[in-house]
Amino acid sequence: MKSFELYEPASVREAVGILTKFGPRAKVLAGGSDLVAGVMKDWVEGEGMPLPDALVDLTTIPQLRGIKVDKNGATIGAMTTLTEIIESKELNERFPLLTRAAHSVASQLIRNYGTLGGNINQRPRCWFLRGRDFNCLKKGGDFCFSVGGDNRYHAIIGGDRCYIVHPSDTATALLALNAQAKIAGPSGERLALFDKYFVTPGEDILRENILKPDELLVEVLIPTPAPDTKQAWMKLKNRQVYDFAVVSVAAAFTVENDIWKDGRIVLGGVAPIPYRAVVVENQLKGKNIKNSMKQAAAVIRTVARPMSMNAYKVDVAQSMVERTILGALE
Fold first, then answer.
1. Which of 89, 91, 117, 215 has the CA that lies 20 to 30 A from 83?
2. pLDDT at 12
3. Residue 283 maps to which CATH number?
4. Rounded to whole angstroms, how far apart are CA atoms 37 and 232?
5. What is the pLDDT of residues 51-67, one digit of tens each?
6. Does the pLDDT value for residue 139 go beyond 90?
7. Residue 121: pLDDT over 90
């Protein structure tokens, strides 16, 4: 592993100052399960993805940790662990979609120190990106090796030159819950809807989110759902033990007399960012869900562009969307 300087700021302002000083050569450190035990341990680097010279440890900032739930919704600090989210009685009552998604992340040991912010902002899972011998587009190279290589787990929607899939279960759930991110930087704090938080390869091949090198995620805000909102989570893994999603589905929606009123359906494991399936939502709006669900789920095929080895994901995504929504009704 490459050596680095470790900084332990006592406040968000101090952390932002360190990030501003070092620029792209510094990275924030949360639980460390991906950055230290993954990217840095495996020497995942390239011209457009340098290994950091400095790590800014956010565990030393108390204000970044905690859960607050009131009539307006929930506020969760970025350094709150996944276990703390899972064990929160208030979150389980009001936002079971998030707690179920958090519970599906990795193993209990990793959830004990893995954080919400770290899970949201982790780097993509692609064996070419993570392989030392492949200078792929996302590392600043000239070629996406998944195009002609083993792409069985890669994107079927929105690849656009790079066919990574976003690995975060909590991000998929938060997008379905219409959450916002509070971001701190040199000029203060700003809010960003999760609809606008993630960056596609077509927008910027070297980034996955809107965070600048001198910014950090402070907390997540989830609005109170409409009365009687149904929330559902489903995740298919390649292994029964802890693993990343082959396909996952997060849904939050309202119903009246079995008629779809409004809601969000978000898929994980199929695109470079958590993918909101607006095409399916539009197909359901104003219709009897039970009568329309099979036809609506099939619309996902109109936006899918599978590669040579992952067409099975289209079938899986269609089936899981249907099962997730119908299961929530029951």
1. 215
2. 98
3. 3.30.390.50
4. 31
5. 999 999 999 999 999 99
6. yes
7. yes
